[in-house]
Write a structure and sequence with these properties.
Length: 115
Amino acid sequence: MRRFMGVLLVGTSATSVFAGPFDRLYRPDGAGMWDCTSVGSDGGALAVKDNVFYGVENACTLTNPTQVNGMSAVLNDAECNGEGMPYTKRMMLMRVPEGLAVIQDGYVNVLRACE
């Protein structure tokens, strides 16, 4: 599960206008013990900081941010690099009561804010 979350949940944003509201440390919802003091390592926190979304050993640059009308959500193109392999995808970040939902084609992952 941790590897899946790490591969799936990583990103960076070149445009700060939309990503800023999501800045903070997160952990996967329903996950066991996660270390909210370290970012990017196995068992560490996931983070959005300065328009960068960090996962486990992965990072994506979020470009072309588009505010989703009527929602606290932003859709981005994601240019990612994980485990030495570049790839692209679409990623939507959406504020939810638990913290943050990361939505991709076929997947919705809820992250809880680290406290």
